[in-house]
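Render this sequence as a predicted structure.
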Amino acid sequence: MTQIWIEVDSWVKINKPKSGPALQFGLSSAVLILARWELNKIHRGSILSHDSYEEADTEFPQTRIQQLLNLIIEHSQLILEQTADADASPTISKPAYDFLLAAYAAITVVEYSNSLPDVEATFGLMQKVCNQAKEMGSVEPVFKWATDMMSKRVVDVLQKMAAESYSVIELLHPTGPVYRRVSTAPPRLPTDDEIPLIDLSAIEGNFESRKGLAAKIRVAAEGTGFFYIYNHGISEELIQNALSAVQNFFNQPLEEKEKISFRSSESASTGYHGVGATQINRTETRDAKETFSMRYDPRNDPTLTETQVLQHNISDMLEFNDTVWKTTSHLEGFRHVMILFWQERLQLARKLIRIFALALDLQETYFDAVTTSPGADAVYVHYPGQLAVDANKEMDIGIGSHTDIQCFTLLWQDMSGGLQVLSSSGEWLDARPIKGTLVVNIGDFLERLSNNRFKSTVHRVYNRKPTSRFSMPFFFGFNPDSVYLHAGAVKQIVGGSLSTESPSTLQTNFVSTHSAAYYALCYRDADALGAHVIMLGPGNEDAAKEALAAWPGKLQVGGGITDANAKQWIDSGAERFLIHAADNEGLQQGIDIELVERLSEWCNIPVTYAGGARTKQDLDLVKNCSKGRVDLTIGSALDIFGGTGAKFEECIEWNKKQ
């Protein structure tokens, strides 16, 4: 063996001055074959003595084995690198021969993969060779097999690395459990890009200002899916009053709080939940928190008329809500401040959902029809101090790892800290409180409806302080009574994609075997006035018309309604249209008279126009232009919404005289 190596070395020295890719390829091939041959002879015991080697200090055979392994790995990878490089490929005889040698090298690195310094890099080389072989029509099956084997080896290595520095968490999902890799390192502070701070004042500006705000929110939503907002319009005084009110509630004896336990409600999300009553992540401990929750109550929605409130068939829920307020009536001002804080966040959420529509390159009012009676859950959370929890080994976290299911969440948190957000790289980020801000995070609905553009990110709360922590999240979603159509089928809200440019890759919570008309008849039998049929993208028109025909004049329709197709939907049986003149809305620059006149010509059902109203006189203007067929809604100009052009009481009086 020694003589052979001497001859190879001599050959290299003679030819090195004129060396090129072909010579290097030939040398690597020869060294690889020779080194493998010698190593095989050692393993078989054919080389029996130290005398076979020139170096007298070589420890036989361990040191020589390592030398041969180094040569094998080095020259195998040189062969792979040259074969992958189309410009440097030497082609000693023909391409098939080169790829055959590459296959030999590939089998070698698979066999000795435990000694590779970088398994992933070697696998990348092998993939390049495969692609090169395909282009030259010289795919070697053995090489393909070796590449597949190396792919499995990469997975093994990564799993081993993950076991050393990462853990895996399990999350609940409608289709079954899903798993996320999570770093075991302590939480770190986020960068400004990971959880940005966004000034929300432009939400009250003109259309261009709102589009600019939407662009900033788009970046945040497509990143971590969490961001802080300031200048959000909710006064600090109201927030502190709400905090004081819930602290008074939680300071009561347990038996007093249990009088409004969620167990007495038709909904598991309404009322009081005691410490440890929930476990949001079944693979982690029970949640070390207690909560008071209130859901959407149409009687508290300032946008609804008395008639619209009566159309909501939710008497059981309203009855329990009344019980809640009666039972807590001894807490001075509790009901008043809870409802007022809920209303302020509802108003902010409805503004934000329009910004999200713009961020998705949709019409600003795209979601209006499905947020008339939305999921709007206010939860008030008390995390007891750490010392109070230590005695119970079943609870060591505030709330387990989870994502929020609704569209988005508005969160106020006190200055205790504890909120942790999972980054895209699997690291926990310490989302520390910033005074004067709310935290906004994307929920599952909006992630799936955006075709996964927006990110619903895993988060949790750890309260590691001996003092209590308080937070007040507000979860905003779509109307629960809507029929959502995607690709002609009825799906539970998460089923569709708002992108018309690429096929949806989304998973759905529910796909019905019944038609849209079936659900329309269900609403008819229940006398559920005000229900919606929402088209999520094209291809749903026929199904929507079937639903409208099943209960003519009683359903509202939304999604893709424009001035060009509005008349056909009126003819199909829609109950009412709410038309937003987006270019005028919020600007108080006057009514779009032409649009009002066209609507009056088409309409044989109620229609409401919104956009540009400045004074009470605009009520008469719209009435006269439409010959009484179109109603007007006044928003920004109204005094109760901060305007100066129209007084609320005067508009009410005008309405009563009609």
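Summary. The radius of gyration is 34 Å. The longest strand covers residues 376-383.
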